[in-house]
Amino acid sequence: MSEVYTATATRQGRWWIVSVPAVDGLTQALHLDDVAQAAAELVAVALDVPVEGVRVEVVTVPGDGR
Asked: Which domain of life is it from (predicted)?
């Protein structure tokens, strides 16, 4: 079973800022529906693994109130 990476998404203006602590990285997504894919791509690049094998769990936190 592969590891599941936790991504935390915080709304800032029009964007979701996405943090993946396991790889000490940040990315962003315009839509909440895109957060998991953006996080998976970040993990894949950081670990040099295929994105298809990366599993991500997204947690949203309050941001700027939008």
From this structure: Bacteria
Residue 35 pLDDT? 98
Give DSSP secondary structure letters for 39-58. HHHHHHHHHT--GGG-EEEE
Residue 66 domain-assigned?
no
**Could you report the per-residue pLDDT of 26-64, keeping only the tens digit for each?**
999 999 999 999 999 999 999 999 999 999 999 999 777
12 found inside a domain? yes
Rounded Cα distance between 55 and 14, Å, is: 25
Q: Which domain holds residue 30?
A: 4-61
d(CA 54, CA 50): 7
